[in-house]
């Protein structure tokens, strides 16, 4: 069923990434599952721990820009046992760049289109706003657009190619559902549908305008879409 109806037109004629090259997986929480699979099969790029809070395309773009030396990650807050903390305060940027420059390809997973934005700078947080910094007059929860996410994906692809050269990039949409929303007059199920649809359209936009080095793998369709087409 999966091979025939989900993966058929997405399976490459030959492996995209050479078997002797490491793969770097980054993005939302779904990327952690991909990463564990790669570790078990000896394909993960070295032991540089990619941050886990890259749930939206703005965060992934900020991280890639930081690796290149183009961003100081003002909004790189991660969940910790005690709340929210800056991720990049003691990280070795050059170690990340060196490891990623040796990658034979990248898997980038996007997860949510709802983000927290700073009205003063237009910057977007990786996750939420730390409680001790939250200012309702300055911070707002917004649904990002297809165009904004497509622009971020283009920038991510360009940045990774500057770091590692002309290597394959595989995009995936996380099937992990949205578990909460700050949007008004909507249910969590409707908010999840809109969030995932926004990202899926953004991915489709950039994949179709690319020359084939940017690919999509339908993990979302396999886990979230197939069920509606089955008799049981």
Question: Can you describe what's shown?
Answer:
The chain is globular. The two termini are 13 Å apart. The chain is built from 7 helices and 8 strands; from the N terminus they run H-E-H-H-E-E-H-E-E-E-H-E-H-E-H. It has a 4-stranded parallel beta sheet, sandwiched between helices. It has a two-stranded antiparallel ribbon with strand order 2-3. The protein has a two-stranded antiparallel ribbon with strand order 5-6. It has helices at residues 2-6, 30-40, 57-68, 93-101, 146-164, 188-208, 219-225; strands spanning 23-27, 77-80, 83-86, 105-110, 114-118, 139-143, 169-173, 214-216. By secondary structure, the chain is an alpha/beta fold. Helices cover 36% and strands 16% of the residues.
Structure described in brief:
It is built from 7 helices and 8 strands; from the N terminus they run H-E-H-H-E-E-H-E-E-E-H-E-H-E-H.
- The number of helical runs is 7
Main sheet summary: 4 strands, parallel
Global structural class: alpha/beta
Strand/helix succession: HEHHEEHEEEHEHEH
DSSP strand tally: 8
| Average residue-wise pLDDT | 89
CA-based gyration radius: 18 Å
Shape descriptor: globular
Quaternary state of the chains: single chain
- State which percent range the strand residues make up: 15-25%
State the helical fraction: 25-40%
Which ranges are low-confidence, i.e. pLDDT below 50, for 5 or more consecutive residues? Answer: none
Strand order across the largest sheet: 1-4-7-8
Whole-Å distance between the termini? Answer: 13 Å
């Amino acid at each position: 069923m999966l091979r025939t109806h989900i993966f058929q037109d997405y399976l490459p004629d030959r492996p995209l990434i050479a078997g002797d090259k490491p793969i770097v997986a980054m993005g939302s929480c779904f990327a952690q599952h991909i990463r564990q699979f790669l570790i078990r099969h000896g394909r993960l790029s070295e032991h540089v721990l990619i941050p886990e809070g890259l749930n939206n395309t703005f965060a992934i773009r900020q991280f890639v820009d930081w690796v290149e030396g183009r961003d100081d990650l003002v909004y790189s807050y991660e969940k910790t046992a005690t709340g929210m903390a800056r991720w990049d305060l003691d990280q070795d940027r050059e170690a990340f760049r060196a490891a990623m420059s040796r990658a034979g390809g990248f898997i980038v997973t996007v997860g949510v289109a709802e983000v927290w934005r700073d009205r003063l700078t237009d910057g977007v947080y990786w996750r939420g706003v730390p409680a001790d910094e939250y200012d309702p007059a300055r911070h707002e929860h917004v649904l990002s657009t297809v165009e904004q996410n497509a622009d971020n994906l283009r920038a991510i692809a360009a940045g990774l190619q500057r770091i590692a050269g002309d290597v394959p990039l595989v995009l995936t949409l996380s099937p992990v559902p949205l578990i909460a929303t700050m949007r008004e007059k909507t249910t969590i199920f409707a908010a999840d549908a809109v969030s995932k649809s926004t990202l899926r359209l953004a991915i489709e936009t950039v994949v179709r305008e690319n020359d084939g080095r940017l690919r999509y793998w339908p993990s979302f369709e396999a886990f979230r879409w197939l069920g509606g087409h089955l008799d049981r």
